[in-house]
Amino acid sequence: MQSNTLDELFAPLVLARLERNPLLTSGRTLGLSGFFDLMHRAILSEIAAPGIHNISLLRRNLQSMYVTKLLAVVNSPAAGTPSDAQALARFELKRVQSEAEERAHLGGVDEVTQAHLVLLAQRAAGASPR
Q1: What three-state secondary structure class fits 76?
Q2: Considering the domain boundaries, does residue 51 fall inside one?
Q3: Given CA atoms 14, 18, 19, 24 in this order, what sign does their dihedral have?
Q4: Considering the entire predicted model, what is its pTM?
Q5: Would you say residue 130 lies in a domain?
Q6: Rounded to an integer, what distance in angstroms lies between the CA atom of residue 86 and that of residue 77?
Q7: How many other C-beta atoms are found inside a 10 Å radius of the C-beta of residue 64?
Q8: Structurally, how many domains does the chain consist of?
Q9: Residue 96, pLDDT score
Q10: Calpha distance 35→18 (Å, rounded)
Q11: Is the per-residue pLDDT at 128 higher than 60?
Q12: Is 78 helix (H, G, I), strand (E, B) or coil?
């Protein structure tokens, strides 16, 4: 279910709509940058938040799927994916890598969380340069 939701959220038509949103209204609206920030805060809250937190299996799986989706947007974007979405996905991967590495170096979490953080950082670093 989490994977299907991420697939829908990162569909090219949804990303294109988010890219156009600020052009369609003069009021507050969610654009691409805000979308990536919202996703980061919602999915990676244990990594970005201060303090030491073990990460549950469900959250580790969601975080892993999120990185997989970001890598797909960067390395093999579906037709119609806006270039700004690709750039923001690459930027988000760098952010994930940095935060996961920093959190892993702090220690104080259980072994599976520590291993997850290291793997997440390594996978996030896997975006091919273009």
Answers
A1: coil
A2: yes
A3: positive
A4: 0.91
A5: no
A6: 7
A7: 15
A8: 1
A9: 97
A10: 8
A11: no
A12: coil
Q: Which two tokens stand for residue 125?
A: 């670093």
Span 97-112, pLDDT tens digits:
999 999 999 888 999 9
pLDDT in tens, 73-101: 999 999 999 999 999 999 999 999 999 99
Residue with tokens 């969380």: 113
Residue-range definition of the domain harbouring residue 79: 2-124
Nearest 5°: phi and psi at 21?
A: -45, -50
CA distance linking residue 130 with residue 119, whole number of Å: 23
91, burial (CB in 10 Å: exposed 0-12, middle 13-18, buried 19+):
middle
Amino acid present at 112: V
Amino acid at 75: N
112 alpha-carbon distance from chain centroid: 20
Looking at residue 126, its pLDDT comes to 85
How high is the mean pLDDT of the chain?
Answer: 92
